[in-house]
Amino acid sequence: KNAHPTVPVVAIVNPNNGPGASVVSSYTTGIANLKAAGITVIGYVATGYATGRPEAAVQADISSWKSFYPAVTGIFFDEMSNQAGDVAFYQRQDSFARADGFTYTVGNPGTDTIASYVGVVNTILVYESSGLTTLPTWYAGYPASNFGVIPYNVASLDTNATNYISTNKAHIGFIYLTDDNLPNPWDTLSSYFSALLTALQ
Questions:
Q1: Element (H, E) at 195
Q2: How far is 70 from 56, CA to CA, in rounded Å?
Q3: Contact predicate 108/91, CB 8 Å
Q4: pLDDT digits (tens, 9 = 90+) for 49-95
Q5: What is the CB neighbour count within 10 angstroms for residue 129?
Q6: How far apart are CA 10 and CA 104, in angstroms?
Q7: Residues 6+ positions from 170 with CB-CB distance below 8 Å
Q8: How confident is the model at residue 102, as a pLDDT?
Q9: Strands of the chain, DSSP E
Q10: Spatial separation of the C-alpha atoms in residues 201 and 197, rounded to whole Å
């Protein structure tokens, strides 16, 4: 990030499927280091696709992020529904987070969503799967900042991957590719992260 200051980078922090039960000093230090580099740091909250987790538990996690790690400036709503009937649930969670002082929110259905979710959070992750895929065209009708993709199991930043970036970055505001894979593609940083930021400039 220091070598690519013009590229926005967002780091999702996740101590224990959420903020955990108490402050962990290494996370406090890590968050401070990320922020010092100009990275936006947001805290992980599981939402159970709007029905699998009590709303009070979701909001308790949001409040714990504020209490435990006040340097965190946003919330990452994982397990986000893409069903029309759940829009109001996410509007309430977003409003709760903003009332707590958070200024940036991300929702992660991990797949295509519907237009009624655009604007409910700042950014929606519309693809979280293995490999690269052709994305729906309707995203182009909205500002790119509304959308992000996080493909995993992308072996290298080869011509196919760089073409994917150049094709999509006009209407997808956030793109993260990694060579990590299941069972947890998010436990290491992409081996070609610096080259990825260069491609995103």
A1: helix 193-200
A2: 20
A3: no
A4: 999 999 999 999 999 999 999 999 999 999 999 999 999 999 999 99
A5: 14
A6: 10
A7: 140, 144
A8: 98
A9: 10-13, 40-46, 74-78, 104-108, 123-127, 147-149, 174-175
A10: 6
- What residue has token string 């220091």? 2
Give yes or no for a contact between 54 and 78, defined as CB atoms under 8 angstroms apart. Answer: no
Query: Helix 159-168 to helix 193-200 angle, to the nearest 10 degrees?
Result: 40
Task: With both helix axes pointing from N to C terminus, report the angle between 55-68 and 87-99 in degrees, rounded to the nearest 10.
Answer: 30
Separation CA 87–CA 109 (nearest Å): 12
Q: Which among 19, 12, 93 is positioned nearest to 53, based on CA atoms? A: 93
According to the model, what pLDDT value does residue 45 have?
98
Q: Which two tokens stand for residue 151?
A: 């493909």
- The number of residues in the chain equals 201
Q: Are the C-beta atoms of 113 and 139 separated by less than 8 Å? A: no
Q: Is 77 helix (H, G, I), strand (E, B) or coil?
A: strand
pLDDT cut 70: percent of the chain above it? 100
Neighbours of 25 (CB within 10 A): 7
